[in-house]
Amino acid sequence: MNATDVGFGLVALLMAVPTAYLVKLSVEARRRPQAWVTLFLLAMMAEMWVGAALYARSPSSTALVEALAAMGALMAATVVVVFVALLRGRPSTDPAEPPAPLLEPPGWYRGIAVALVLLSEGLMAYAFAVATATPLLSAGASGGIGGVASVVVSPWFVFPMGAEMGIATILLWSRLSPALRIILPLQAGIMLLTPTAVASSSWLVGSIVLGSVGMIALIVFAMEHIYRHREIPTALGGYLLQILAAYAAMMVGLLLWLVYGTPVVLAASVVLEMVVYFGAVLLPDRFRSGDRFSWQLRPAWAFALLGLVFVGELFMGAVLDLEIQPAQFTGAFFVLPLAGAPLVVVQNSLMNGFWFFATVAGSTWFLAMMGAEMGVLVLFKLRETQSLETRVRLGLMLASYAAFAVFFPSVYYAAVFPNAPGGATVPFLGWSMGIGSAPLGPSVFLVVFVTYAITGVLVVLFGRRVICSTFCTAALMYQGTTIDSMKSFNRTAPVGRKYLGSRFSQAYSVTTGVTMGSLVGASFVSYFDQVGVLHITIAGADPTAFLFALYFGVLWYVMFVTIPYTGTYNCVTMGWCYTGTVAQAFQKVSFFKLKVRSKDVCKACTTLDCAKSCPVGLVDMPGHFRTKGEFRSTKCCGVGDCVGACPYGNLYIHDVRHWVRRRLGLPDSVDRGVPIPMARARPSAIQGATETMGGSAR
Ligand code: SF4
Ligand code: SF4
Questions:
Q1: From atom 3 of ligand 2, which residue's Cα is the shortest distance away?
Q2: Model pTM score
Q3: Among residues 75, 147, 540, 633, which is most buried (max CB within 10 A)?
């Protein structure tokens, strides 16, 4: 960087101040004259940069004259337009006529203001890039879409734009809602961290990692915000989807740039992010308005939110994989050529897409990033959980995720099996349970056997929650505050409600049958492949490796984003997970069940909070409590929300510990759950029952 670069850089950053101030004036313009004068000033600025860009393109005295002439003509035309507009909108001189009402900036006005800001920034970036001979990313820098894109992702565009967003945020601070005061600074920071802005490998890795941290922070904030505010302003709902779409596009663009070298999609996402930003700051008052909606009643909105978050994360994971583990991932994505007959192109595209999805979803950095994001939501839940048993389980769940989703599969086993065939999984307690380990041959048979033996014993002693609420990676994803609150969809979603209750519907039997059938079939084919009788692969992989990639690399995430239509924990409620089905079989003979201290309390209970809080939709549990005083269901995955939700502390989880205590003649010690404020309003019948019931009412 030389003195010229520094000088131009200072000018670019200084230009951010008047632009941000004009943005503030645009927000505050409530009368026609104010609005037109603000547009006039923005137009003047853009026209000034038209002249600068024309001159920078071919600096000569002729070009200077042409640039000045063009500027003069444009400015004169602008003056005429604004003057006419002001004349037509001048206030009446009749004192009897009421003053014109204060107006919110209309859509066309906001559109022109944003377009002028973009034009100014783009032309300034072009002029400065040419003047300083900054190397641009695209060979077509002198024109065309590639040329425009290379200017947009250059430091001359993103740094001034980031500064402008930051300054405008500060200038408008007093008008911003609390949510915008968090999101807008993050947005400005992410703009400043555009990886293409500086041609250096340390900037590339640093900006990608820090930008990802910023996006994760934004997603966590958005998730927690909607958890705490079940009704949100309509403007905020729209803005959240827009910003998530911009970041998803940014991650897609970044990957395309890293793999194919094209900055076009990345540049489009930068512009989109800017437009979204100005769309929010130009109407800050809408974010405080009473126009609100309950997102739990809008499955389409929740689906869009989850879908956009997931797309952004998948591509962010791929970008992190490429940058942090280049030796493993360079050239690993999109390996099949997209050339030849149309059918071959379609087939190769599908195959590339499938393996890209499954490979990234199973990679270290994707899982670490998802773990960080969903783990924070679990920590929020832990903070508000008072039941000791549930707190311990949530802590174990976090530790299990770190061990079984990240450390063992990605770090430890990569060291133990450095030459494992692609797609092979190594057995461990947790998700894969050994499925997909066939390519590693008989060397892992003992580990598979021990995995199933340990799992089986633990499920018999403590119930299915050992897998489905602790070891399984899915547990962490489902049990953070926001995703947990989506259990409301289990009862309202068209598909989810078909799977309510502990009974096994026909649909459930079909999904479980298909899952287990495919597992058994793939295992046989895989075995005969290993002994040399067959030579069958699916999508180029061992059948069990393919099956694992299909169920847990792709299908699981597809089902996760469909929660608003299928309900949470749909792997359990719909029975499409073979690991869950195996755990379910063991649960049939386990010590695990739900018990109540007093059937009478349940008979008098009108809240039925236990049923409402169940994330797998076991809505029939109160009926069982009233008649038998206990409830057994192989669908129950022991999350324990019902225990905490019962307003009378009447419910507890029974497992081998209670059985042992009873055998030893020890007094029972049960987690009494956490009475919540409703308990204060309990009916007198319940009051009497709870006063007389003891810990041994079983
Ligand atoms: S059913 Fe399967 S995916 Fe779902 S929580 Fe249980 S083990 Fe995990
Ligand atoms: S909320 Fe408590 S008292 Fe009411 S039915 Fe459920 S376990 Fe019984």
A1: 602
A2: 0.87
A3: 633
